[in-house]
Amino acid sequence: MSRSFSLDEVSKHNSPSSCWVIIGNKVYDVTEFLPDHPGGAKIILKYAGKDATSAYEPIHPPDALDKHLPREKHLGSLDSAAASAVKEAAQNRRKTKDELRVEAAHAAKPPVSRMLSLWDIEDVARKVLSYKALAYYASAADEEITDRENNRSFSRFFFHPRVMRPVSQCDPSTTILGFKSSIPVFVSGAALARLGHPLGEANITRGAGRKGIIQMVSSNASLSYAQIAEARVSPEQPLFFQLYKHRDDHIAEERVREVISLGYNAIFLTVDAIVAGNRERDIRAPFELEEQEREADQASDSADKSAKQEKEEGGDVNLLGTAGALIANDDLDMSWERTIPWLRSITKLPIVIKGIQCVEDAVLAAEAGVDGILISNHGGRQLEYALPCIEVLYRLRQQRPDVFDKLEVYIDGGARRGTDVLKALCLGAKAVGMGRPFLYAQSAYGEEGVVRAIDILEREIVRGMRLLGVSNVKQLVPEMVEHVNWQPVLSRL
Amino acid sequence: MSRSFSLDEVSKHNSPSSCWVIIGNKVYDVTEFLPDHPGGAKIILKYAGKDATSAYEPIHPPDALDKHLPREKHLGSLDSAAASAVKEAAQNRRKTKDELRVEAAHAAKPPVSRMLSLWDIEDVARKVLSYKALAYYASAADEEITDRENNRSFSRFFFHPRVMRPVSQCDPSTTILGFKSSIPVFVSGAALARLGHPLGEANITRGAGRKGIIQMVSSNASLSYAQIAEARVSPEQPLFFQLYKHRDDHIAEERVREVISLGYNAIFLTVDAIVAGNRERDIRAPFELEEQEREADQASDSADKSAKQEKEEGGDVNLLGTAGALIANDDLDMSWERTIPWLRSITKLPIVIKGIQCVEDAVLAAEAGVDGILISNHGGRQLEYALPCIEVLYRLRQQRPDVFDKLEVYIDGGARRGTDVLKALCLGAKAVGMGRPFLYAQSAYGEEGVVRAIDILEREIVRGMRLLGVSNVKQLVPEMVEHVNWQPVLSRL
Amino acid sequence: MSRSFSLDEVSKHNSPSSCWVIIGNKVYDVTEFLPDHPGGAKIILKYAGKDATSAYEPIHPPDALDKHLPREKHLGSLDSAAASAVKEAAQNRRKTKDELRVEAAHAAKPPVSRMLSLWDIEDVARKVLSYKALAYYASAADEEITDRENNRSFSRFFFHPRVMRPVSQCDPSTTILGFKSSIPVFVSGAALARLGHPLGEANITRGAGRKGIIQMVSSNASLSYAQIAEARVSPEQPLFFQLYKHRDDHIAEERVREVISLGYNAIFLTVDAIVAGNRERDIRAPFELEEQEREADQASDSADKSAKQEKEEGGDVNLLGTAGALIANDDLDMSWERTIPWLRSITKLPIVIKGIQCVEDAVLAAEAGVDGILISNHGGRQLEYALPCIEVLYRLRQQRPDVFDKLEVYIDGGARRGTDVLKALCLGAKAVGMGRPFLYAQSAYGEEGVVRAIDILEREIVRGMRLLGVSNVKQLVPEMVEHVNWQPVLSRL
Amino acid sequence: MSRSFSLDEVSKHNSPSSCWVIIGNKVYDVTEFLPDHPGGAKIILKYAGKDATSAYEPIHPPDALDKHLPREKHLGSLDSAAASAVKEAAQNRRKTKDELRVEAAHAAKPPVSRMLSLWDIEDVARKVLSYKALAYYASAADEEITDRENNRSFSRFFFHPRVMRPVSQCDPSTTILGFKSSIPVFVSGAALARLGHPLGEANITRGAGRKGIIQMVSSNASLSYAQIAEARVSPEQPLFFQLYKHRDDHIAEERVREVISLGYNAIFLTVDAIVAGNRERDIRAPFELEEQEREADQASDSADKSAKQEKEEGGDVNLLGTAGALIANDDLDMSWERTIPWLRSITKLPIVIKGIQCVEDAVLAAEAGVDGILISNHGGRQLEYALPCIEVLYRLRQQRPDVFDKLEVYIDGGARRGTDVLKALCLGAKAVGMGRPFLYAQSAYGEEGVVRAIDILEREIVRGMRLLGVSNVKQLVPEMVEHVNWQPVLSRL
């Protein structure tokens, strides 16, 4: 990789038959990789012969090229004139309408100290996130019904608070797979944090470490697993790994061995996202954005013609969206019989099944001898009309209370308040995972946003425990919640 | 029919006592037919002595005059001067406000490749359809409650998705009455496709043929049964026939024999539409349109006086609407004892009862020995407060599971997503019919719209099956759905 | 009553100590009547010494003065100069903002032939009614919850329609207390029809007579009982009488004897309105109107001062409203033991208890031997949170089906569609009463409005029967309706 | 306290190390008190060396300084020049935007005689209250769901009204802990009445006394307990005391002994507010107000710079809100075993537990031998998702009817109508408490507002009793209410 290239030279390789791209002043030949790109060849070809850095970086970890592109395709670097030209072009690039909106939103956001709830933080994040990032973070399957119902379902559980119990000493801490957690909440796996903030997943790692809760790192993180491990506040800070299993067992094994060697502490095998959910907001984002820019252009200059032309052509629509690309190579043929023994054979780490969605599979998981299950419908992003997670948990408690003795049970999806967490714990959950709230927190305020979110949750949980009359999490019991048959009016949904 | 006529001559026959009309340059004497016209004499008299082509064509199949008007009333053709004059008049006619709106909507619609769901297609169709066509397609009985509930009812069924099952090989195909269908969906009978697109039902025939699903053709199609048969992509493409039984058994028999001879493959006897439902939007369409044009007129010229006059007169309102006219001669006295044996006596084709709305009648149908039942409330267009079809299916599954062993059960009404289809299949349906979605698809994008709609459904069904953990339709079982007692918030309704 | 008076003379009697009023050119001394006026003395004193005709007439029957004011207080007539002056003053009076609005609404309303449903008619009526009239007609107790729930409750009953049954011959007629009714609907008692139309209750009498349904006449009609009897289309036309029982048995007996002698055919004893409901819209109407006029005045002249003054004074608010005044003398101490035998002792006419609101009282009514019960919560105008009538009927059918064998059961409140009527009949009601719909119909279109309303209902009922598979009302059975546990989305409420 | 001070001298003590404040022309050294101030040191330091009267007075009773600040820290008075300067400064102070809004709202409000319901009064109060006062009064926990559900829950209880029962004599009175109450309603404890009206709690005391109902006085009243006792209309007027128990038993005992000596008649021990609820509206009020004023400033002058600066600093947010400060020293370790015997040991007054929220604790209270329980979730201000009070009452009636024989049961939270009160009485409550409605009534109209509110309730209760067929409160029985499974549409929520 000692060669250096002029822009002119690179620009000649601008077609499917020879496709070079510049990323971070380096030149890569991706011609042979085009058909294997999970996000499709089309998006790469848009940058054929050109600088692709700004599009590439937020959605790929730095080690992606090393892992996926053979060494010999790393052709070399730009020469200094080219590097300067690329840099200047990036600086002179006219900002898009959406980028200008984001800048203004960041300037106008309130100080983090005024964030009183996770909803407040989400409100800020929805303003400061780019259109594309918000579409990826917020989108869910089809009409997004399960996503909304995940949250609304908590509202049909009411408390039977107990009074006249000593609660001045109140300890909200618990353990998860034996690891201490300052509150019964963990960061659930969620990909592409750099879409929302340049420091990405490391914001969460540091915030979680400072406050004593545990982060589950996605296979599709936008930092490398090593970078995230390095971001820990101490070597003892536990990290869990959310495994998307590659269809090729060997590639999958390599991924597991990498995180073992980095000191990750548990494997959450994701089983509810073997194919991409139909996240229409995410899929639609590219052409919604295009429409926005076109309108902006029409106001300022005469870009009419090409816009019209493109419209008439229509062209392909990438139906996978950002999410689909990430899991394009996942294993569609996992099974209890094959996959659990395989995973056990390569690691001694605790194994949790992420994505259990009914009582029957919870029972099978217990029989398979895993260490825990995470009841989850992937934040409503996969199968529309999967039962909300708190409803599944409730059914498990009603129908098979014995399962809670055999493994640890967690839920994620829809929890936003301390009371949501407490309801799940009353029903037998050991902890509650949250994904989007931490993406939003780091997008709005970086590491400090993550710390604030945990502070808020801790305050809500401790207050809730005291008002329920309990002084530690073990005192949270099923008798303290009631599943009512009416639907409260929610101001949010 | 060798005579030729001048416009002057035709124009003299402009009264109930002698009423001629021009349709497609031909001259017809409809004087004696006036009292028998299902849509009423009034609408014909509006065109007495004049050219009626543009009003006639979209709502009558080309063979209607041959079938319903005696040969001797087909008087002859216009002479060439008259033909030119009629043509010129049609071209010079000032477009109505609604026609201009439709033209603009067509010009602005997005390319079909950006349609992500049936809802997207419906949104486009609602913009590009004429006021009258949309009123006919979209209208339902009374307050349209059953129409909305048909759709909403699906949302009270949630899934129990199964994980860790091999699903890379996933086959969504099934058979309907022994005929192969690429997905468990068929086109349910829906009339007057030419109201929405000049090629009408043939768009659906070709789209269905190309994608391997089956079309049920309405007795009230706006193309002739022969034209539709000819539109098939191959002679093997199956077609079902939706029979509205004429009160005169002989006329009814003639209709059945016609479709047998054309190679149709099954008879769906429609029993839920013996009288017209109260579709107020459809009934109201003529005077809503009149009002629109009047407002347009008042802006541009002084049509005030006649408008006012008409208003004061009030005049008759056709309470049947478009729909009522279509079934004006239907048999109100069908019975299990009389009608099924009669139909069996004239055809060996499979017989399905379309319009079963309760468990008791499903049982009677099984006892009557028919081949299938289509649980349907006619898209909510007939009896307001008929139970939604998925609710009837659920009750049948709960109360009389034996019926599913005796005949094939289908449902239609309200399904719009792959998940809707899968819920019905879990409960025992062999396939799900859709009517309006295909009318909308062909109205918005012609044959390509139909193909796109089927593509969307196939993608949604396959994705849904995989996320449910099944690899063929037989694995869809009642345990996979749960009827919940809350109502999700829907963004659409 | 031979004396005649000048305006000057009358105007001197303008105080509580001597209070004369002019009504229809006649002069009355109402000084001693002031404390007995059910609507309060204040409203009369507003007209002391002046012409009160326009305020008096729409809310009092013409025989009210004969019945309630001793002969010697009918002082005489205006002299001709006075009569002219009064007439001229009435003509020159500046119309109020509300009167101008009503005139414009009447001019703009669509022809009656375009009315497709009772809702259409109500929409017109809500536009053409005076503020005060609409407030009286539409208002209900407290937040008007029971009024809305009366209607919404019907929407939780769905049909099990039957197919393949001969229904070409379909007879919607029934009998009520032995009297023939062309459809199972009657006009329920509703007061003060002249507030909405100058011909008042006679519009309903004639419309009902022409279409063959039965009117129940309110004790508080704005025409005399005799005038209504005279409006019948034939002497055989049945009329029912809604009795508000006066606390003085003798006065009550006199009222009953009057209607017997006029040929009325049944007594509906009203038991749910012994005190006035809290109809805030009705109570608020006077000051809302005052506010409207004040705003109009402020625009046109300087009426500021007095308005401000009145505001500061505040003054009494009549908390009874129009409705309260009408029943100010009702009997609060009726009982099964005392009242039914008393009524039986003075008439052989059928007796129906109007206002049964729970199963227990339906049973007591059957034991008391009355001929019928009308399950009613007075259109939601009395006790907020009385159960909706269809819900009470349903409970009666579930818990005490024997009651239906002992007397006739009717319901009123909330029915607006043929399907509503059919649901009630399926559950065992003999007929369904409607009050407001007929007030609205006559207000909007007079007698023709009433005829149209009945035509609409008949068409809806016959269509509904056919689509349910029944050819006469006896075939409507409980198995045909199901009480569902979800709430449909209604476009109206 | 004989010394007198110049403003100059006071102004030197403007820091944490020496902090003096002026309240009502008196000078206090609060340096040592700073860390103990329940509302935090920051808010005091804002006034260090300055006049704090206007901020201090509405939220502290006049005896607060005597009780909480040692005698020697009451330094003396302002000299006459200083007193004049302070007075002049107060008069010349520019009114805030919010103060101007409140003044205009008071001028525009309708006369009290036009208030027809408690909702009307609340509507006025919401307009005339300062932003801060409304935020404190109206706010509730988290999303304020329990607050709304408290009210909505009543709407799922419908009546079975009885007819034909003598009700002309109707007595709505009852007793509470043996004390006569003209209607089964009492004023529930609610703090800081002077935020809404300068006369504060005394408005309620006098209104309640005049109408014969009983007031429960909050520990956190903004008048002294003595001032409230003095406001009674007669020495016999009963008063209840809502005890927030201080964590120090001796201080708590002192408080109880004070109210005993003042003649208070019962102790309501508050157990549901040991820590502050998360009332975000209240917490947010200071910075919302700041924002308002900043906007006003920016319009009129150039205050930009400091505003911007403050924003950038962010600064601490007081997460306790007004409410939190009030209970900062409450006892978190109360228990049935310890606290009830302690309270019994210091008083013979009846003891009621305020804040029972489930059946289990109602039973424990009965076993503890207290005189009554008030089922309450503190107006939804403490634990979000505590069951609504009427639902808890209903469960108690269903599951443990024996408890009603052992002690008196009251509820508060959400009742706004006479029908709400009657439903609770049917289910076994002896009386219903209302808090916010009386705060609103006195804020809008002072003492007359309180009288009007009670008049409205009395009228609604008597009317409701008559329409239910009962003539005294003992006749209200469980059979008269039904818990329905649907949710009525409410116009308010």
Question: What do the pLDDT scores of chain A average to?
Answer: 92
Strand content of chain A: 5-15%
What is the CATH H-level superfamily of the largest domain in chain A? Aldolase class I
Our Rg estimate of chain A from Cα atoms comes to: 24 Å
Name the CATH architecture of the largest domain in chain A.
Answer: Alpha-Beta Barrel
Biggest protein-protein contact in the assembly? A-B, 53 and 41 residues
Number of strands of chain A: 18
Find the CATH topology of the largest domain in chain A: TIM Barrel
Biased composition (Basic and acidic residues) (chains A, B, C, D): 302-314
Main location (chains A, B, C, D): mitochondrion
Keywords (chains A, B, C, D): Flavoprotein, FMN, Heme, Iron, Metal-binding, Mitochondrion, Oxidoreductase, Transit peptide, Transport
GO molecular function, one term (chains A, B, C, D): L-lactate dehydrogenase (cytochrome) activity
Describe the structure.
- Four copies of one chain form a homotetramer.
- Chain A folds into three domains: 3-92, Flavocytochrome B2, Chain A, domain 1, CATH 3.10.120.10; 118-277 and 325-483, TIM Barrel (Alpha-Beta Barrel); 280-316, no CATH class.
- In chain A, 44% of the residues lie in helices and 14% in strands.
- Chain A has helices at 7-11, 41-45, 53-56, 64-68, 80-92, 97-108, 118-128, 131-138, 145-154, 201-211, 225-230, 249-261, 280-300, 304-313, 321-326, 336-346, 359-368, 389-399, 403-406, 418-426, 436-468, and strands at residues 3-5, 14-15, 18-23, 26-29, 50-51, 74-78, 157-159, 174-176, 179-181, 185-187, 214-218, 239-243, 266-270, 351-356, 372-375, 408-412, 431-434, 481-483.
- In chain A, helix 10 (201-211) links the parallel strand 10 and strand 11 (214-218).
- In chain A, helix 8 packs antiparallel against helix 13 (280-300) and helix 20 crosses helix 21.
- The radius of gyration of chain A is 24 Å and the shape is globular.
- The N and C termini of chain A lie far apart (54 Å).
- Residues 302-314 of chain A have low confidence and may be disordered.
- The interface between A and B is large, with 53 and 41 residues.
